[in-house]
Design goal:
Keywords: ATP-binding, Nucleotide-binding. By secondary structure, the protein is of the alpha+beta class. Among the domains are: 8-193, ATPase, nucleotide binding domain (Nucleotidyltransferase, domain 5, 2-Layer Sandwich), CATH 3.30.420.40; 435-587, no CATH class. It contains 14 helices and 31 strands. The two termini are 52 Å apart.
Amino acid sequence: MEQNRHKIIVGVDYGTTFTGASYVSTRGKTIDDIVLIKSWPGRARHTETVLKTPSRVAYATDNNGKHRWGYQVEPGMMSYSWTKLLLDRGTPLTSYDAALEGAAAIGMFRLPEDKDAVQVASDFLSGVYEHILTTIAKQITEEALKLTPLEFWFTVPAIWSDEAKSSTLEAARRAGFGSRKGNVQDTICLIPEPEAAAIAALRRSVNDGLGLSVKPDDGVLVCDCGGGTVDITTYLVKQVQPTLKFEELCTGIGGKCGSTAVDRKFYNLMGQIFGKAFSDLPRRRTAPGSDFMNKFEIIKRDFGYPSAEMTHELFLNMNPIGVNAEYFNEDESLVIVSHNDLQSLFDPVVEKIISLVRQQIVDANKEAGREVINRIILVGGFGDSEYLRNAFRNTFGPAGNITVTVPNNAQAAIVQGAALRGLEGLRADNRRSRRHYGFTWAHRFRKCLDNEKDSFVDIYDGDRYAPGYMEWMVSKGEQIPDGYSQQVEVSISHREGDGLVFVDSLYSCDVEQAPTRVEHKGVQKVGEIIVNFEKVDLSRFPHKVSEGKILYDLHYGIKVIFGAQEGVLKFEAHSEGQLIGATSINFTHTSFY
C-alpha cells in the first residue's frame, strides 16, 4: 500500500535542439533530491555524462533499416531536427522571428512526406519516454515502477500559441507519456519554461547563503534563451519564508531567436559565399548532427572567451568555383570562418534578445510604478554562451542596480524547475494572459453604423442584427490565478427540424488594444467549440409556433478554463444543468512559415 500512496514526478524539457529529463519521488524534500538524467544512449556522444540528448530522429526508410534518435543518430544519417518549432506554426511571426522565413526557404524545416510535425516529435519523444522508464526502473526495480504513478511535467515556451501547447501534449501522449496500461494512472501537465526556470533559480537563491538571496519585493527577470525560442518573464517576489511566493509582474514577451537563429544565419552566410556548391550538397552533410555542424556547434559554444581562436576551419568536401581563398582551402577542403564572420552571426541575434529584455524591464517598471527589476537570471542552452553572457553583463551591469546571474548548469535549471513544480507545488501565484481571448457576437443593427449587407433577421424575435463584434473574455496582461475561468452566456435561435449541433469559434489577439471587430488583422481564430443540443429537452426553453414550425430561443453557457493545471485551454458548455460541450478545442490550423 505504501508504494501506491506515493508517485514519481518527471520533468521533461523538450527543446528545439536538445532534450533533458529529471525525476524525483514525492518522498523527496528539496531541489537536491531531484535526479538529473545524465546518461543518454548513442555512440555519437563525446562523453559518458551528458545532461541532454539531441532532439533528432532518423527513420529506417532513409537509413538502410536503422531507426535512431538522439545521440544514436550518427553524422551522415538522414535525420530531422528543429521539429519543435514546427509545432508552433500558428503564431504569427514578429520582428524577432525574421530568420525563420529564411530557414524555411532553404528547407531547414523539412519533414518526411508521410508525417506531420506532431508525428515526428512523437517518434523522437517515444525514445525519450522509453529511456526515462528504463532509467527509473534501474533505481526502483521494474515491479515497483509498475505500481508507481508517474506525473510528467513538460516545459513549453511561454510565448507559444494554444495550438502549439495542445500539439505538444498530443505528441507526448502518442509517444506513450501518460498512457501506461495497468493499475496506475499517469498524468501529463505543462509548465511555461521561464516559470520552471524561476522556480529552480528562486528556490536555490532563497537558500544559497552567498549574499545573493532574493527578498520580498525583489523584481526578478528570467531570460530563458533556448535553442529555438527566447522567453522573457518578470516576477515579483512576494514572500520567501516560510514558503516561497512570487507572481508575474507583467505580460511576458519573447521570440523565435534562440541559438538556432545563429545556425540559420550561418547557413545563409554559407549560401551567400558558396552558392549552389553548398546549397546543393546532400542534407546529411550539412544538417544539424552532421560532422560539419557538430564542429560549428563547438565553435559557437567557445565564441566569446578571450582564448577563442580568431579563425576557424570546418571540413566540408565540396567544389566551389571562384571562391576567395580567405573563405575556402581547396587543398584541405576546409571552410574558413573568421572572428568577424562569427560576430556578424551572433550580433543581430544577441541585439534582438537584449532589445526584448529592455522592453520587458520598461513594462515591468511601468506596471510596478517603480524601478522594480534588480536581478536578471539567464538560463537555457544559449545561456551557456559566453558571448551572450558578456553582452548581458556589459549592457545591464554597469548601472549597478541590476545583478546578472547565470545558475550553474543553466541548461538544467528548467528541467529541475519542472520537477520541483510537481514536488513542492511551487508556481507563480498569478500568471499574466499572453493574449486577449473572446468570442464574436451579433449586436442589434444600428443604421448608419453597421453594414446592412452583412446583417440578418433573427428567426425568433424578428429583430435585425449585425454580426462580427468581439466580446473579449480575458484581456492581454490580465492576471490568471490557478484554475481561473470565465463564463459567457449565449443564446441562439433554432427552428424545429434544423440541426442541433452548433459551432462557436474562440478567438485570440496579441495586440495591446483589443479590437472591436473580428476582421481586424490582429484577431486570430484559435479553434472551434462544438455544442450539442441533441439530448437536451428543448421544451424547457422559450418557444413559439411560426408557419407550422416550433421556434426555440436556446440558451447555454460556455465556461473557458484558462488556468487549468494541464497548461492548455479547457472548456465546458452547459445548458439547463446538462453538459452539452466537448472538453477540448478543435484547433484551426494556420501556417505562418
